[in-house]
Design the sequence.
């Protein structure tokens, strides 16, 4: 019962926050930020009790992953739907000044029309990918023994949502990739369908209710599909997480799959967040919200994949980490061998191509990078910005004494967001050779040469400034390559 109550209260509050924030035609960043902020605090508050799903798609993913019994999952989904409806109804009443009549007569700016786009391929793809990213993150940061006891799970989960939600704007189904929040689309039709008269009592307009339920195929079906896909992928790539299973080829492939999926989600976010053809794209989105969304998604995916692959998602980072290992060849526990790094780069290129392809199903013209700038200036900007990002990665994720610190994902995501802010108007701020594939082939040379040079420089500077990482071995009579 304690789990059920946590899920009920949490989902109701998420629904209320989303619906209130989405009213009156507010900026398309307001509702995602309000939802994500609420999600962070509720996830930390209820995670130790119920797992803090607050979303039938997450429950679906955890069920498929094998961490939840079917009966418990059904109970979760039921109370989540009830909580979503109740939270949306309360939000509508608040927005209407507490009057039932006013609430019926005034839609108070809520996005009712979004639910009517069930045949819109763009919305289906957007909501499915958003839900997949959330569930993929949840499964890795809350259901694996290797990440058990971490304190970043709430931040990672909320970051995965807010980054993609801001990038997609109003392209999705208008329900926060959460079937429970989609119950908001039933509130107004229910008010219209149930009419209280003195003579007849309640009169039910069956056609209105039937039409309302018919609109739910997108905001319910797409997120559940994303949750199912995330759960199935986890089972495929982590077979030894299940009782009686032994490590085999599937487990060996897990790091490469993580690199592909993480890079795909990053590329998808970059392409949609910076698209000039998407609806309601403004200078605010391009200059401020796009870097924030890219940094947030990267933060979530670094936390999700770090324990499996190291979460590079960038050939320049792989080059930096591989060279850093070559300069300290006696260290291996935190680093990736060169031959593995080469395969990582292949998967990153494939992931970026997949992300760009999926983005084209959502927006007609992907953005970023392809800035019309002087090539030499762009090369210098890309080198410098990627140098900063790679140095942050090396200092926070490859130093032995930092192995149990948990700020690495936030630091790396923030570094990418900061450098995107700084360099977007100068070079386009690719910071990643794989992202050049977003525009097809061939692409400007400086989007490859710049980031790769930045990665090499970061490894060399790391060797110079992180003397303590090498001194212990050398004091025992060893020698380094420099």
Sequence:
């Amino acid at each position: 019962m304690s789990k059920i109550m946590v899920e009920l209260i949490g989902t109701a509050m998420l629904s209320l926050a989303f619906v209130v924030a989405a009213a009156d035609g507010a900026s398309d960043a307001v509702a995602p930020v309000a939802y994500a902020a609420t999600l962070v605090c509720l996830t930390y508050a209820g995670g130790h009790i119920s797992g803090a799903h607050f979303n039938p798609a997450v429950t679906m993913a955890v069920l498929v992953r094998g961490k939840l019994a079917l009966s418990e999952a059904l109970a979760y989904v039921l109370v989540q739907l009830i909580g979503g409806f109740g939270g949306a109804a309360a939000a509508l009443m608040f927005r209407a000044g507490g009057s039932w009549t006013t609430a019926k007569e005034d839609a108070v700016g809520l996005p009712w029309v979004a639910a009517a786009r069930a045949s819109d391929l763009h919305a289906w793809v957007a909501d499915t990918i958003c839900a997949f990213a959330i569930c993929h993150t949840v499964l890795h940061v809350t259901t694996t023994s290797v990440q058990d006891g971490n304190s970043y799970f709430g931040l990672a989960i909320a970051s995965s949502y807010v980054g993609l939600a801001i990038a997609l704007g109003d392209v999705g189904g208008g329900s926060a990739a959460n079937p429970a929040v989609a119950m908001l689309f039933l509130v107004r039709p229910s008010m219209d369908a149930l009419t209280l008269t003195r003579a007849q009592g309640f009169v039910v307009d069956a056609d209105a209710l039937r039409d309302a339920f018919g609109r739910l195929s997108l905001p319910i079906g797409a997120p559940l599909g994303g949750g199912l896909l995330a759960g199935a992928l986890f089972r495929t790539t982590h077979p030894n997480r299940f009782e009686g299973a032994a490590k085999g080829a599937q487990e060996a492939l897990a790091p490469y799959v993580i690199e592909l999926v993480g890079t795909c989600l990053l590329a998808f976010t970059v392409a949609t967040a910076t698209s000039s053809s998407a609806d309601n794209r403004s200078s605010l989105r391009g200059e401020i919200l796009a870097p924030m969304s890219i940094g947030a998604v990267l933060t979530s995916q670094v936390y999700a994949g770090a324990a499996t692959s190291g979460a590079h998602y960038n050939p320049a980072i792989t080059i930096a980490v591989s060279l850093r290992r070559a300069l300290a060849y006696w260290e291996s526990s935190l680093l990736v061998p060169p031959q593995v790094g080469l395969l990582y780069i292949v998967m990153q290129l494939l992931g970026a191509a997949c992300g760009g392809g999926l983005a084209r199903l959502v927006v007609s013209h992907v953005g970023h990078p392809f800035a019309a700038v002087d090539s030499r200036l762009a090369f210098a900007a890309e080198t410098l910005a990627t140098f900063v990002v790679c140095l942050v990665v090396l200092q926070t994720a490859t130093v032995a004494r930092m192995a149990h610190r948990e700020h690495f994902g936030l630091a790396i995501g923030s570094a990418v967001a900061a450098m995107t802010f700084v360099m977007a108007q100068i070079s386009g701020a690719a910071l990643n050779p794989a992202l050049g594939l977003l525009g097809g082939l061939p692409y400007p040379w400086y989007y490859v040469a710049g980031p790769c040079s930045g990665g090499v420089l970061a490894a060399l500077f790391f060797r110079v400034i992180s003397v303590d990482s090498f001194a212990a071995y050398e004091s025992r009579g060893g020698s380094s390559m420099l």
About this structure: The beta strands are 194-197, 201-204. Residues 70-95 form the longest helix (26 residues). The two ends are 62 Å apart (CA to CA).
